Amino acid sequence: MATLPELRKSAARRLTSPFMTMLSKSPVTPDALTWIGLAINIIAAWVIATGRLIIGGILVLVAGLFDILDGALARFTKKTTIFGGLLDSTFDRLSEAAIFIGLLILYAPTGDALMVAMIFLAMVGSFVTSYIRARAEGLGLACSIGLFTRAERVIILCLGLFFDQILIALAILVVLSFVTVGQRLFHVWSQTRTKKQ
Q: Which of 111, 116, 156, 170 is deepest in the core (most CB within 10 A)?
C-alpha cells in the first residue's frame, strides 16, 4: 500500500503534468514561478485583510498551484539547483506568514482574543513543522513523513476561507500541525537512536 508521501507525490504529478510541456517550451524559469507564487500570496493576504475571504481563498489556491509547478518544472527540465530549493522553501514560509498576517489584520481590530491566539498558534505550528524537516535533512536525515504538510495546510485554510469558517480551519491547522511536529520529532529520534546503536 502506498505511503502518504507517495500519495502526495502522485497527486502532484497528476496535477502538474498537463502544464509541463507548455512551461518547458516557454522562457519561464522555475525561480520565476516561485516569485509569482509569493506575489500572489501577498495579494491574497491583502484581499483577506479587507474581508474578501472567498476571493482570498481562490488566490491562495492559485498560489499553491505555482508552489507545486516550480519544483515540477525544475525536475522536468533538469534545472534543479540548491539555491532554487532554498528560495522555494524560504518563499513558502514568507507566503504562509503573509496569509496569517492578513488574517491578523482582519481579526485583531475586533478584539477577538481567541481568534488572534489561534492565528499565532497556527503560524507557529506551520513554521515548526517545516523547520524540523529542513533541520533534519540538513543533518542528513530523511524527514518527509507527517500527517499535515504544506499542501494539507493550504487546502484546509482555503476551505475555511471559502465557507467563512476560519476558526474551525485554524483549530484543525493547530492540532494537526502539532501532531505532525510530534511525528517528525519521533521519526528523527528513531533514526538517531538507530545510528547510535
A: 170
